[in-house]
């Protein structure tokens, strides 16, 4: 028994030992009582049952992981069409996209913002440009928030102000800022529209989904108002093919929405919003792949080549492309690398309309990485990933033959081969790779010299052509 004083001063008081919980009868009884769930309320019972279910799920997941080894799960089966999970997923996606769309500025909001910018800016005495400093920027932000609402506040952040070029007084021009707002709204709306068409919600668009997006844009594009109803489907097919040529380099049959939004193709398509009152020649309209003139030109070209009108092009028919200036070996290589065999079997190959569109896109965009990659596969005769002097000699031999048949002067193939080597300056002096062609900035010219006699003629007469272009400007 403890016999010391109550405060414990001056004595070495022994410590009282507390018996373990397991030896206390009341603790054991309480544990039994709680364990049976008899004394718990409905909420406590529900929580206990939930913990048991979660524990069972956790143990089952651990068991499956142990059976599967150390490889983690990387594939989840998509919900079946019409299932509850699929419906819930689509409803959640629809509500999310609607919410994001409601947060965007509409045309009236953008007009109101432009008025606020112009009414609260200052005029630069030197240039006459309309500018604003950071104080004006903050003031305009509060005015826009009052007139438009809080959804415009995100454009008036300090980080956005710092993105623009400032003058000596720390002011930015209001026009670049307004164009930035318009482009952000336009791209966001485009992403929402594309996401709505993305049926499996994987962030990629399939060809028919991309065509559906373009079809929805046609009523809003000023330069496509007069498109015939019978030509709409063909136009959408032609327009969508350019997106896949540049945004689907692996040819997987689906284009990443992010790449589509950041590509020059979308910007080129949106140029059709502009209404041009002045007369535009067919040549100028044809420079835009998405113009109605360009689409009709390509369609007419395919129909003119398709002599037997079977909807596909044979090698003999494709040889008539560009007035027959392409070489025989290049046509053969195009069919070897980019044309699938017919479904009926056999060795016969026919180029369908989609393959023809890729063919035209590659020839009209030879200086781009995508176009040059398409052509390099044809130039790489042995599929080794590089070209040798023998390959250059073999490829140019057909160009040389057409060159002589056209009544031109005699030339030495070895001299042309050496000139190509000097133009490319490959890292390995014995090989030319696709990377070398891209880095030399003359890959498109080199490809033209090896596949098209007209391309070689243009290179050979480049000084005269340049002089002819400069003379009208001097006049």
UniProtKB/TrEMBL annotation:
Keyword tags: Calcium, Cytoplasm
Domain EF-hand: 293-328
Subcellular location: Cytoplasm
Region feature Disordered, mapped onto this chain: 1-22
PROSITE patterns: EF_HAND_1, EF_HAND_2
InterPro entries: EF-hand-dom_pair, EF_Hand_1_Ca_BS, EF_hand_dom, PPP2R3C
Calcium is among the record's keywords: yes
UniProt keyword Nucleotide-binding, yes or no: no
Protein name, UniProt field: EF-hand domain-containing protein
Native species: Citrullus colocynthis
Origin organism lineage: Eukaryota, Viridiplantae, Streptophyta, Embryophyta, Tracheophyta
